[in-house]
Specification:
Length: about 400
């Protein structure tokens, strides 16, 4: 078992988000290690020592990040000296490493930076190839405690290149396998009822987790064991059973965002896409442009929030807006078709809706949206009512629905 301790007042006051622990958890799991707990503590010696005491009762390995800088509020190194009954000593190899890293930035090489070469005497020092704070590895009664910088780039480099390989040599780990099946269009509670019999029949060494997110439910089947190949075979058999139960509601058999699935389909078929967004405000385009290489397939977007832009840029009929309203099947369809023609793409997506919290009517309540996707040969236009959620929630739900419709159109 491994426990992570993150050190820093900035985490506990919400100034930064602890992304380090999430990344470490994923990588450790891939390597066959199980996580017992993640704890965040203040930059305060007694708090750090107490967290260490408690962690070592639960875990064989404690990984610590943060509090290793050259300033007075970075106290982890000195606290570890007190905890392990040792003292700081000068390490010339650490200083040489720091000098190599900063050889083109001599202004950084001040007395505070050089003080990073003072390390606990009773530890194994691992050089930090991306920063000045060295990594320290302690062993106590068969257990391992590692202290790393909190800077994500530095932590990730040393975890990947040094810490995980050393832990794998130090401990024998089982194979841990996860398989994710993504389902769209079935609410979590309904899905759980539908899968009750199947879930109850799972072998004891397999576990199921439901991970819902804006209309999608990820079903993650996990297993641990010594025989990796038998484990994979058992999980694959369960996935085949899921196929027979859920059919076309399953749209992916891997933990991959739908926008990346869309990109891969567009890329392989040589198709291009554009978007015309009103109520989603460019969020569909934002999701697509998060994918590296999408410029080969995505040409651009028009955020036509005002009706004048819908008319002048996308060619939507002013008469139809007057007659049917901006939130209508007619307008959504014309927005999509207009975007495809204006941006000269093979496909297009359009959204128009009422994000709220005001602006709804009995006929068109807050949370109502029309989404249209089109190609040269086919247009799909659908309405959804996502309820009176917060605007951010409505935008994310609408974005997901639009992406899923685009995925369907591509086939």
């Amino acid at each position: 078992m491994i426990e992570i301790i993150t050190i820093g007042d900035e985490i506990l006051i919400g100034q930064i988000v602890d992304t380090n622990s999430a990344w470490m958890a994923v990588e450790l799991n891939k390597a066959g290690f199980q996580l017992a707990q993640i704890t965040s503590v203040h930059d305060e010696a007694d708090h750090i020592k107490k967290a260490l005491d408690e962690a070592l009762l639960r875990a064989d390995v404690v990984l610590m990040t943060g509090g290793l800088g050259p300033t007075k509020d970075d106290i982890t190194k000195q606290t570890l000296c007190e905890y392990f009954g040792t003292k700081l000593v000068f390490n010339p190899e650490v200083l040489e490493n720091i000098q190599q890293i900063y050889h083109t930035r001599q202004s950084v090489m001040n007395e505070l930076t050089k003080s990073q070469a003072m390390v606990p005497e009773k530890c194994t020092v691992i050089q930090n190839r991306a920063g000045s704070a060295p990594i320290t590895w302690f062993e106590k009664e068969g257990k391992v405690i590692v202290s790393m910088p909190g800077v994500p780039l530095e932590m990730k480099k040393v975890m990947s290149e040094e810490i995980i390989p050393r832990l794998q040599k130090h401990f024998k780990t089982p194979a841990i396998i996860h398989k994710t099946v993504q389902v769209y269009g079935i609410p979590e509670s309904q899905l759980a009822l539908r899968l009750t019999e199947w879930e109850n029949s799972l072998p004891e060494y397999l576990h199921l987790a439901y991970l819902p997110n804006f209309g999608i439910v990820k079903l993650r089947i996990s297993g641990a064991g010594q025989d990796k190949y038998k484990l994979e075979e058992a999980i694959n058999q369960q996935v085949e059973t899921l196929k027979s139960i859920l059919g076309e509601s399953i749209f992916a058999y891997e933990d991959k965002p739908v926008e990346k699935i869309i990109y891969e389909k567009l890329k392989s078929s040589g198709l291009t896409v554009s978007t015309a967004e009103s109520c989603t405000g460019g969020n569909i385009a934002h999701r697509l442009t998060l994918i590296p290489g999408i410029s080969d397939c995505f040409k651009g977007t028009v955020v036509a929030y005002h009706n004048e832009l819908k008319i002048n840029m996308l060619g939507v009929s002013a008469q139809d807006i007057e007659q049917y309203g901006a939130v209508s099947s007619q307008v959504a369809t014309q927005m999509a078709e207009g975007a495809r023609k204006v941006m000269q793409t093979d496909l297009a997506v359009a959204t128009t809706g009422i994000a709220g919290p005001t602006g709804g009517t009995p006929e068109k309540p807050v949370g109502a949206i029309w989404i249209s996707v089109c190609s040269r040969e086919r247009t799909i236009t659908r309405s959804y009512v996502f309820g009176n959620f917060a605007r951010e929630n409505f935008i994310e739900r609408s974005t997901m629905a639009a992406l899923m419709m685009l995925n369907e159109l591509i086939g």
